[in-house]
Amino acid sequence: MPKDPTPSAAPPTDIDVLILGAGINGAGTFRDLCEQGLTCVIADKGDFGSGTSAAPSRMIHGGIKYLETGQFRLVAQSTLERNLLLRNAPHYVTPLHTVIPLFSWLRGIPSALRTLFGSTTAPRSRGAVLIKIGLAVYDFYGRRQRVMPRHALWSRARALREIPGLTPEITAAAAYYDAKVSHPERLVLELVRDGLAASPASQALNHATLAGTDGRVVQLTAADGRPLALRPRIVLNAGGPWIDRINAALGAPSALIGGTKGSHIILDHPALLAALKGRMIYFEADDGRICLVYGYLGRVLVGSTDIRDDNPDTVRCEEDEIAYFLKELRELLPVLTFDEGQILSTYSGIRPLPRSDAAIAGLISRDHSAPVAEPEGARAMADPVAGRRQVDNLSRFRRGSGRNRAGPAGPRPPRQHPGLADRRRARLSGGPCGLGGRHRRPHRLRDRPRRAVAGALWLRGAGDPGPRRAGAAAAGRPARLVRGRD
Ligand SMILES: Cc1cc2nc3c(=O)[nH]c(=O)nc-3n(C[C@H](O)[C@H](O)[C@H](O)COP(=O)(O)OP(=O)(O)OC[C@H]3O[C@@H](n4cnc5c(N)ncnc54)[C@H](O)[C@@H]3O)c2cc1C
Questions:
Q1: Ligand 1 surroundings by CB, under 6 angstroms
Q2: What residues in the chain have per-residue pLDDT under 70?
Q3: Which domains does the chain have, with CATH numbers?
């Protein structure tokens, strides 16, 4: 990619924020910023929501497995978001009755304690006592905006009665509720459309190519070949597993992502579908990895693997992953037959996880952050949108998902506050923003440890003439951002 591309004939268009990547995170941010009166452009090299956001297990879970690694704040946030999405986006997000088969009463307590205190190598296996404690904590965290029943522990006899094909090896089973999303790609599209409706001057471009930047103006090529020159105050890199590639293309090389590949298969298996009775079985595979199987649009979704990989452009489900799924299903449900002929399709994605040395891929943190790279001379005030403010905005967005659709509380009016857009613009360009104590917030955030899954690259603000230094300095100023967790 050329660093200083031939500029387009038209003068550059000044905008507030350029978002690169239109997955769930880019689209959510776009919607929220548009609603706050900012002018944004969101651009994706493919279709909206066609990246990782089209390849998940389609669960809107509250993060039960993060309990194991002691990420309680993440569980609290995820359970609340799950409950809010159940209320706000019921056309896509519905409850998912989940059953965990249990193979012992006491197993796993020592390794759970080691994992809780930071070990990323402890062998995993979870017995009934451990799961019972975990689910009680999970219920506690999920109490805010609760819409679903609490968990239950089933005896072996009841579990075999409820799911007749289940392996008789079980000791008991736990049942609880999480949620699933039927069409995550459409949720992405709705967010983009909400954003456009709220901010008519904003634009959403799919199949748009990033042609380069001189540190001030970003050149894009639209789907129809039209060159576009944009002068944003901020570029937000929402490229998911492509984040490092995008940063490199913008002249700010980074090594933030240490992704893992996850694959799924879709089975045409009426007997399995009937045995599941609308439930998901969330089970532990031989290697300790948690797998899942549940009915999806009249078929059965099985997933997922967790294999280190970082190339989202070439990712695909391999033969050994298929063999792994079929073997695990045969052990879980021995009365049913499973073979490759039942597989209708497969899909894979790369989890945009932070780089990590964890021996077990499943123990890499799923928490989020947003490092900021700034040009030299940028004023410290210049990062609230990519900092905690961003998180606040995102949570509010998520709470508002589907705000125009009548929910239990009825449709919500658009959120527009007099002067808010101007104050945000002032902060984006480092100028005075008049928000008093909030000025100090970004500094606190910058002191947090590095755990990055998303990056934001600062370009010079349009009103902030300074030396060209796009993102060369100060990479890795973290703050939490975004969502979408496996
Ligand atoms: C196997 C698996 C299972 C998962 N299961 C779940 C689950 O059950 N529940 C859950 O909540 N989360 C789950 N996740 C996690 C979730 O899918 C991701 O966290 C989320 O989709 C990431 O969204 P994103 O917007 O950050 O990235 P993406 O959706 O990948 O979006 C990034 C976008 O950037 C675009 N892009 C790349 N390069 C450029 C460029 N140069 N210019 C412009 N655009 C570019 C891409 O085309 C892509 O559309 C799972 C992930 C995987 C892999």
A1: 20-26, 43-46, 50-53, 55-59, 210, 238-242, 246, 249, 262, 304, 349-352, 482, 484-486
A2: 1-9, 119-124, 359-369, 373-486
A3: 13-52+185-255+367-458 (3.50.50.60), 59-181 (no CATH), 260-351 (3.30.9.10)
